[in-house]
């Protein structure tokens, strides 16, 4: 192969890679085979850790929710949550606990696109005496070009019903 042909092949390969690599990200997230919403939740009530499991985490989606969230308790009292997702709209889970005095705290993850993949980590600190809940943490989302972005979760809400929970993902 002559030097000129090697240069042409190299330049063509480089151009093809520059086109295919970004397109590959977009195709990957459009055909993502795993759960599209995954994360870890920690609940503290009045400064004490509250163990989470599938008995005290209730999940539902506002529109066409066919699968419940999979909840995996961890040894440290936190729980990993996986929701299949795959549709536009708000996916919600509520946490109940005897330590919350029959009240619930809510978390809503909004999927702005059917192909979005969201990861999150959220700490929930409830104070039953002050009747307030502080949410803190982070979440990631995918943009139209397949790039991952990270934003913070930070909110203080009244502890009175699950509809006053924190929402994220409305980027």
Assembly level: single chain
What is the gyration radius calculated from CA atoms? 21 Å
- In whole angstroms, the N-to-C terminal distance is 51 Å
Look at the helices and sheets and give the structural class.
alpha+beta
Q: Per DSSP, what share of the residues sits in E-state strands of 2 or more residues? A: over 45%
Protein name: Conserved domain protein
Organism: Ruminococcus albus 8
Per-chain topology:
Elements: H1 3-30, E1 37-45, E2 48-50, E3 57-61, E4 70-73, E5 79-83, E6 89-96, E7 104-111, E8 118-127, E9 132-142, E10 148-158, E11 166-168
Parallel strand pairs: 1-8, 7-11
Antiparallel strand pairs: 1-2, 1-5, 3-6, 4-5, 6-7, 8-9, 9-10
Give a description of the structure:
- With about 170 residues, the protein is of the alpha+beta class.
- The chain has two domains: about 1-30; about 35-170, no CATH class.
- It has one helix and eleven strands.
- The protein has one helix at about 5-30, and strands at about 35-45, 50, 55-60, 70-75, 80-85, 90-95, 105-110, 120-125, 130-140, 150-160, 165-170.
- Strands 1, 2, 4, 5, 8, 9 and 10 form a seven-stranded mixed beta sheet that branches. The chain has a four-stranded mixed beta sheet with strand order 3-6-7-11, with no helix packed on it.
- It is elongated.
- The model has no long low-confidence stretch (mean pLDDT about 80).
């Amino acid at each position: 192969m002559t030097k000129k042909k090697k240069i042409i092949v190299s330049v063509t390969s480089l151009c093809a890679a520059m086109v295919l690599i970004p397109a590959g990200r977009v195709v990957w997230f459009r055909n993502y085979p795993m759960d599209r919403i995954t994360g870890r939740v920690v609940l503290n009530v009045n400064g004490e850790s509250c163990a989470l499991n599938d008995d005290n985490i209730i999940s539902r989606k506002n529109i066409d929710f066919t699968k419940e969230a999979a909840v995996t308790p961890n040894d440290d009292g936190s729980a990993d949550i996986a929701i299949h997702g795959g549709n536009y709209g708000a996916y919600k889970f509520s946490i109940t606990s005897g330590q919350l005095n029959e009240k619930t705290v809510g978390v809503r993850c909004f999927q702005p696109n059917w192909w979005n993949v969201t990861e999150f980590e959220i700490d929930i600190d409830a104070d039953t005496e002050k009747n307030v809940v502080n949410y803190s943490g982070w979440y990631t989302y995918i943009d139209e070009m397949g790039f991952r972005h990270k934003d913070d979760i930070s909110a203080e809400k009244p502890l009175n019903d699950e509809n006053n929970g924190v929402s994220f993902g409305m980027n």
